[in-house]
């Protein structure tokens, strides 16, 4: 199975989910990639499942960019 990113900073990136000869029925519902922005903050670029594309001898799962999540460095806590 092949995963492909659509739009965003990882547009066009292609990943192979399993090694040859290994079967899996687990399919991720989303992908994310960590990076640092110009200010040094950690950003998580998030992709969600969009559609399946059948072609050749494999199935490609397409993931569309839904936006960044920025780590502001502020920690929140809750009390019961």
Question: Which SSEs are present, and which pair or pack?
Answer:
Blueprint: E1 2-6, E2 14-16, E3 30-36, E4 42-55, E5 58-70
Parallel strand pairs: 1-5
Antiparallel strand pairs: 1-2, 3-4, 4-5
Word description of this protein:
It is a single chain. This protein has 80 residues and is an all-beta fold. It has one domain. 0% of the residues lie in helices and 52% in strands. It contains no helices and five strands. The protein has strands at residues 2-6, 14-16, 30-36, 42-55, 58-70. It has a five-stranded mixed β-sheet, with no helix packed on it. Strand 1 and strand 2 form a beta hairpin. It is elongated, with a radius of gyration of 16 Å. The mean pLDDT is 82.
Q: What's the mean pLDDT score?
A: 82
Element order: H for helix, E for strand = EEEEE
Q: Which radius of gyration do the C-alpha atoms yield?
A: 16 Å
Q: Per the principal axes of the C-alpha atoms, what is the gross shape?
A: elongated
- The tally of structural domains comes to 1
Q: Biggest sheet, in brief?
A: 5 strands, mixed
The assigned structural class equals mainly beta
């Amino acid at each position: 199975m092949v995963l492909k990113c659509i739009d965003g900073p990882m547009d066009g990136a292609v990943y192979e989910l399993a090694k040859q000869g290994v079967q899996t029925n687990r399919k991720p519902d989303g992908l994310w990639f960590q990076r640092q922005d110009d200010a040094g903050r950690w950003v998580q670029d998030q992709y969600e499942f969009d559609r399946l594309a059948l072609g050749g001898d494999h199935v490609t799962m397409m993931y569309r960019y839904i936006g960044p999540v920025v780590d502001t460095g502020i920690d929140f806590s809750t009390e019961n």
